[in-house]
Amino acid sequence: MNIPLATITLTQREHAYVSEALAANWISGTGYFVPRFERALSERLERTHVIATANGTLALELALRALGIGVGDEVIVPAFTFVAPAAVVRAVGATPVLVDVCASDWTLDAIAVEQAITLRTRAVIAVDVIGHSCDYDALVALCQRRGLYLIEDAAEAHGASYAGKPCGSFGHVSTFSFHANKAITTGEGGCVTTDDDVLAARMHRIANHGMTPGRWYYHDVIGSNYRMTNLTAAIGLAQVERWDELIGARTQIGLWYDKHCPAGVLPCPTQCNPACPSVWLYTVVTNRRDHVLTVLQQAGIDARPTFEALPDLPPYRHYSGFPNARFAARCGLMLPTWAGMTEALVIDICAVLQQATIVSVVDGEEVPCLM
Ligand SMILES: *Cc1c(COP(=O)(O)O)cnc(C)c1O
């Protein structure tokens, strides 16, 4: 077998829009597919403003800069996440303060967040990890009560929702990535979303070299270039127009995995109310994860371990604590998931998974993840 972790499906629609942009000679960040892409997203996400960016990491950095977060400030970041939210806090000169995640869904534990707040805390970055929304009833109320900005990183949660509202609509600023392994993709790309007019204008300006709109080469704030190209936005518009098809395909793949996954392999993060997760990379928890991963890899199935817990990475090192983040990092396994996978392929993957887990029970000796 040769089954990738993720791949993309491009249709005539993406090709047509990109050809149109090329034919019109509009390939930079100033081109009409950018606002069309932003408008389509803002409707989809029920947000007033969407600003497209070069990638999801820079979207987070733009949010922090526009909120004026920098040296001397602390930003709360979950201990279990892809590294970008912690790295951008460092990039603007602030300090990431790690907080453990919930055992049930691997998202920020609101009680632990409250305990980590100090006089220097300015913001909380809530990551909708592996398609599962955070507890926004708790986090929105907490941030309001304590005067903190809530930044939502929805990079892994296209199509997920919480209490009927889409992920990407909960933060003062929310961000997305459209990297090729995300559910909606432009290859490289990202965006920020907000309902705050003033903040949107600030982000727009910083993303465009800090230039005063309508006044050439007059830069009244320090900015940079965070822009997405028109070619990228052309792909993005097509992908957003295919949103229901692309998200629906992953939902179906998740149901097939639910049905065919062997006993002793548990899906995680699990479904719960009022969060309504979407499927990004179908993720399970298994005993002897590294062994199972090796067996899958040897069979040509490109499964991956879940993210390392941030406290186990040198720049963010903490020697104790964070049991739930460390559990998610030690026991989680991300399985191939992409629109276009067939049920037969899922069955093949689950058969190898079953073989791998049988062996792991026979000669299992390390600390079990599951009883
Ligand atoms: C993928 C991802 C990012 C980074 O997005 P890029 O577009 O690759 O820069 C940020 N945060 C999370 C949670 C992600 O999964």
Features:
38% helix; binds pyridoxal-5'-phosphate; alpha/beta; 371 residues; seven-stranded mixed sheet; 14 strands
Describe the overall structure.
By secondary structure, the chain is an alpha/beta fold. It is 38% helix and 14% strand. The chain has helices spanning 12-23, 33-45, 56-66, 84-91, 110-116, 136-146, 197-207, 230-241, 243-260, 289-298, 323-331, 343-362; strands at residues 49-53, 74-78, 95-99, 121-127, 149-153, 161-162, 165-166, 173-177, 190-194, 266-267, 275-276, 283-285, 304-305, 332-334. The model has no long low-confidence stretch (mean pLDDT 95). Bound molecules: pyridoxal-5'-phosphate (PLP). Residues 55-57, 81-82, 84-85, 127, 153, 155-156, 177, 179, 190 line the site of pyridoxal-5'-phosphate.
In short:
The protein is of the alpha/beta class.
Topology:
Layout: H1 12-23, H2 33-45, E1 49-53, H3 56-66, E2 74-78, H4 84-91, E3 95-99, H5 110-116, E4 121-127, H6 136-146, E5 149-153, E6 161-162, E7 165-166, E8 173-177, E9 190-194, H7 197-207, H8 230-241, H9 243-260, E10 266-267, E11 275-276, E12 283-285, H10 289-298, E13 304-305, H11 323-331, E14 332-334, H12 343-362
Parallel strand pairs: 2-3, 2-4, 4-5, 5-8
Antiparallel strand pairs: 1-9, 6-7, 6-11, 8-9, 10-12, 12-14, 13-14
Helix pairs in contact: 1-8, 2-8, 3-4, 3-7, 9-12, 10-12
The site of pyridoxal-5'-phosphate has 14 residues, from helix 3 and helix 4.
